[in-house]
Design a protein that fits this description.
The complex is a heterotrimer of chains A (277), B (284) and C (265). By secondary structure, chain A is of the alpha/beta class. Helices cover 37% and strands 21% of the residues of chain A. Chain B has 284 residues and is α/β, with parallel strands linked by helices. Chain B has helices spanning 46-51, 81-86, 103-113, 118-131, 148-160, 178-193, 205-211, 229-232, 236-240, 248-256, 270-282, and strands at residues 3-12, 20-30, 35-39, 61-66, 69-71, 87-90, 166-170, 197-201, 214-219, 222-227. The longest helix of chain B has 16 residues, at 178-193. Chain B is globular. Chain B starts with a strand and ends with a helix. Chain C folds into 2 domains: 15-130 and 240-264, no CATH class; 142-224, no CATH class. Chain C is built from 11 helices and 2 strands; from the N terminus they run H-H-H-H-H-E-E-H-H-H-H-H-H. Chain C has a two-stranded antiparallel ribbon. In chain C, helix 2 packs antiparallel against helix 6 (103-129) and helix 2 (21-35) packs parallel to helix 11 (243-264). Classes of the chains: A alpha/beta (277), B alpha/beta (284), C mainly alpha (265). The A-B interface holds A 40-42, 87, 141-142, 165, 168-169, 171-174, 198, 200, 234, 237-239, 242, 245-246, 249-250, 253-254, 263, 267, 270-271, 273-275, 277 and B 41-43, 147-149, 174-180, 203, 245, 248-249, 252, 255-256, 259-261, 270-271, 273-274, 277-278, 280-283. Chain C: This is Energy-coupling factor transporter transmembrane protein EcfT. Chain C: Keywords: Cell membrane, Membrane, Transmembrane, Transmembrane helix, Transport. Chain C: It is found in: Cell membrane. Chain C: One of its GO terms (molecular function) is transmembrane transporter activity.
Chain lengths: 277, 284, 265
């Protein structure tokens, strides 16, 4: 697997704080991977995002994006490779209409207008918001706003998309459409997805989960193994998966295999038990 | 307090050339001392509905009765304090209402407006801060130095401090991590057991299944269903028309019923589901 | 908050909507200027006919224009009454103390009234048919020559458009905070002046706090999307001046000439 982000011995402490927000953190993120970063509020997840995008400067350590170490000179170039979708859809909408907002990143690159018009249309097609091109953001639902934010990020053709709790303020319907979209985009566009979340169902879509606590990585594993720790997940700011919770209430009278099963696997086990009767 | 809506219609911009119905002929009874959940998609009128209960909004037509108060379009804006004292309201992202220098002063703000003496308000602040799961050390801090989750708790304490009989909650756990969410929901369930009426707006159907006694479903300003959660979640018409999503347990049961299993009525909580599965597998 | 009709855009697609906003913006100001040239009944009737024709072309419900008068109703009434009773005259119809009612007074008062109506209608027409962002684009385009003296035109225009974009958001936030504090027992508009002013503290502080947090979030989001300092940016929106706009300018010229003619008549 090819690395796309490589972080080494990263440290960061906020100016008005004594405790480091990121504490000697080292991690590699691979191309086309979907990585979930989880952890309680205040565990350093959002700080890490900002360090990866060079929005704040690390006290020490290095961040390499696509083989390039971030520094003063190349920061703007590196940033074009990363797109961030933030938590509050209202606080990241720059344009007065949907199309204006999608164009913002392209305007910043100084792209000629004819090309921009094509790119904006294309990005809006990708997220299924083309019909809303002329609309005022105020008239959109939360999920639609986030899809526009994703289009704005896609327009500049990044390699990496960071979802910084981008579904946490959406209703279930909005959350579902945004996650489906991201899943499809990752496959079609060869993107790397980093999603910061509290939502267990969102982590189920990822290939790897990194658990942060006090600015350090305390776990780094595939979802199945992380879910295995059951009720202790709450220490990491995650809910116990539904299948696991159900299994623990069934164990006293049914014979079920050890370890974590997802909902489908559990259903198969139950069907087996029922048909054996 | 019992709350009754009788044919309540609310139109935003009633006098403007573009009228906009927020509520459309809603009749609903919310029982005293019960935990009632109100669900529906964004923009379905849930928030408009509850804002009538403490007269932040008034009906364009129809009337509602809150305890012994009657609210109609004619209701005067004066003398609403006694009503608002009885009906506490926790807004969505309530941390944005904090403004005092200290947590203590902020919690005391509501009670003092409602005529508590300073020492009564102080006592209330000391009691509430612990009720919401923070220690008394927080009282002298500035609310703006706290984390988002802590600010949320302080804001909730500020509403509870006036000792309302009815507590309205508009998605009180949005954006909190799972631990915080459970703690806050348990706190409200606990308040109900102490004799409060709880009205909860939520998108989380598991919270409805686990905590609510009654539920109401809104869509496009209309009340489309109300009753016991176990009945409403088994209402096929609502589900087919996409007006309602199911709690996880019911969804799981539905999938499980593809083979071998059969549910006359979908279980809505984990305990119900687990009991059903055990019974069907073990056959006892 | 929605009661303010002036300054609110109403989506639509009639001829007036399709005009170049720069033209609409400048011609509106121009029209307000020539309103003061009218000096007799005929000239006022003519201008009113022109404005009503423009309103007709916009295909917007006339009610919106009447509503536009409402916010300054008291100002109009006060000015009209002032003219009505304080215009000095040698042939008063009615006289009481320092109040004088005369034919001249009545004529001047009605001119003033019509002048108000003309100005309000035409500017309401501009704001109803032009989005705030089009107005801000127009201002940018009109100010462009100032770039030569190092005035940061593009930055100011972006600032203006972002400010406009966040007005509705802050209005929502204000309503929400007011509701929240009302629910905590604040009574706005009750008690003496000091008490009233004090009751706004619980609104202003939270509003400042959220404005700053929105500004911070937005700055981070803009930087992450590659916004540096406004230099080297290209522009997605373009304004197009077309034949329609030329015709509109000609019509306005014709209106001026006819007005000058009626005036000296």
């Amino acid at each position: 697997m090819e690395k796309i982000i490589s972080i080494k011995n990263l440290n960061y402490t906020y100016p008005d704080s004594k405790k480091p927000a990121i504490n000697n953190l080292t991690v590699d993120i691979y191309k086309n991977e979907w990585l979930s970063i989880v952890g309680k509020n205040g565990s350093g997840k959002s700080t890490l995002t900002k360090l990866i995008d060079g929005l704040i400067d690390a006290d020490s350590g290095t961040v390499e994006i696509d083989g390039q170490e971030i520094n003063e000179e190349n920061i703007w170039e590196v940033r074009t490779k990363i797109g961030i979708v933030f938590q509050n859809p209202d606080h990241q909408f720059v344009g007065a209409t949907v199309e204006d907002d999608v164009a913002f990143g392209l305007e910043n690159q100084g792209m000629p207008r004819e090309q921009m018009v094509k790119e904006v249309d294309h990005a809006l097609e990708l997220v299924g918001m083309h019909d809303f091109k002329k609309r005022d953001p105020q008239t959109l639902s939360g999920g639609q706003k986030q899809r526009v934010a994703i289009a704005g990020v896609l327009a500049t053709k990044p390699r990496i998309i960071i979802m910084d709790e981008s579904t946490s303020m959406l209703d279930p319907e909005g959350r579902r459409t945004v996650l489906n979209l991201i899943q499809n985009l990752r496959q079609q566009q060869d993107l790397t997805i980093i999603s910061i979340t509290h939502d267990i169902s969102e982590t189920e879509l990822s290939q790897r989960i990194v658990v942060l606590n006090d600015g350090q990585i305390v776990r780094d594993d595939i979802p199945k193994n992380i879910y295995n720790i059951g009720t202790n997940l709450s220490k990491f700011g995650l809910e116990e998966p539904f299948s696991d919770e159900l299994m623990s209430t069934l164990r006293d009278s049914l014979e079920l295999p050890e370890g974590y099963l997802n909902e489908e696997e559990l259903m198969k086990q139950l069907w087996k038990l029922r048909s054996n009767m | 307090m019992e709350i009754t809506f009788e044919h309540v219609t609310h139109s935003y911009d009633a006098n403007s050339p573009i009228a906009n119905l927020g509520l459309d002929d809603v009749s609903l009874k919310i029982d005293d001392k019960k935990f009632t959940a109100i669900v529906g998609q964004t923009g379905s009128g849930k928030s408009t509905l509850v804002r009538h209960i403490n007269a932040l909004l008034k009906p364009t037509s129809g009337k509602l009765t809150v305890g012994d108060r009657i609210i109609t379009s004619e209701t005067n804006n004066k003398n609403l304090k006694p009503l608002r004292k009885k009906v506490g309201m926790v807004f969505q992202f309530p941390e944005s209402q904090l403004f005092e220098e200290t947590v203590e002063k902020d919690i005391m703000f509501g009670p003092m407006n409602f005529g508590f003496s300073e020492s009564e308000a102080k006592d209330a602040a000391h009691e509430m801060i612990e009720l919401v799961g923070l220690s008394k050390d927080y009282l002298q801090k500035s609310p703006f130095d706290l984390s988002g989750g802590q600010m949320r708790r302080v804001a909730i304490a500020g509403v509870l401090a006036s000792n309302p009989e009815t507590i309205i909650l508009d998605e009180p756990t949005a954006g909190l991590d799972p631990v915080g969410r459970h703690e806050i929901m348990d706190l409200f369930k606990n308040l109900q057991s102490k004799g409060r009426t709880i009205i909860l707006i939520t998108h989380n159907m598991d919270d409805v299944a686990n905590y609510a006694d009654e539920m109401a479903v809104m869509s496009q300003g209309k009340l489309v269903a109300s009753g016991l959660p176990s009945d409403v979640f088994n209402n096929q018409e609502l589900l087919e028309n996409d007006l309602l999503t199911l709690p996880q347990s019911a969804q799981f049961a539905q999938s499980l019923a593809q083979k071998y299993f059969q549910f006359d009525k979908l279980p809505i909580t984990i305990d119900e589901l687990s009991a059903e599965i055990k019974q069907q597998v073990n056959g006892d | 908050m929605n009661k303010l009709i002036m300054g609110r855009y109403l989506p639509g697609d009639s001829l007036i909507y399709q005009l170049d906003p720069r033209g609409k913006f400048l011609l509106t100001f121009y029209f307000v200027g020539i309103v003061f040239l009218a000096n007799n009944v005929a000239s006022y009737v003519f201008l009113m006919a022109f404005v009503l024709f423009a309103v007709y072309l916009s295909k917007i419900n006339f009610g919106f224009f009447i509503k536009g008068l409402r916010p300054i109703f008291w100002l109009i009434l006060f000015t009209v009454l002032l003219q009505l009773f304080f215009t000095p005259s040698t042939h008063p119809i009615w006289h009481w103390g320092f109040l004088t009612l005369s034919k001249e007074g009545m004529v001047i008062a009605s001119y003033i009234f019509v002048r108000f109506v003309l100005i309000i209608f035409i500017s309401t027409l501009l704001t109803l048919t032009t989005t705030p962002i089009e107005i801000s684009d127009s201002i940018e385009s009109i100010l462009k020559p100032l770039k030569k003296v190092n005035f940061p035109v593009t930055q100011v225009a972006l600032m203006l458009s972002i400010a406009l974009r966040f007005v509705p958001l802050l209005v929502d936030e204000t309503t929400k905070i007011m509701d929240a504090q009302r629910a905590r027992g604040v009574d706005f508009g009750e008690g003496g002046l000091i008490k009233r002013i004090k009751s706004f503290v619980p609104i202003l502080i939270p509003l400042f706090v959220s404005s700053f947090s929105i500004a911070y979030d937005l700055a981070i989001a803009m930087e992450s999307r590659g916004y540096k300092d406004g230099e080297g940016r290209s522009k997605y929106r373009v304004l197009k001046w077309s034949r329609r706009d030329n015709i509109t300018v000609l019509v306005m010229l014709a209106v001026t000439i006819i007005l000058l003619f009626i005036r000296s008549y």
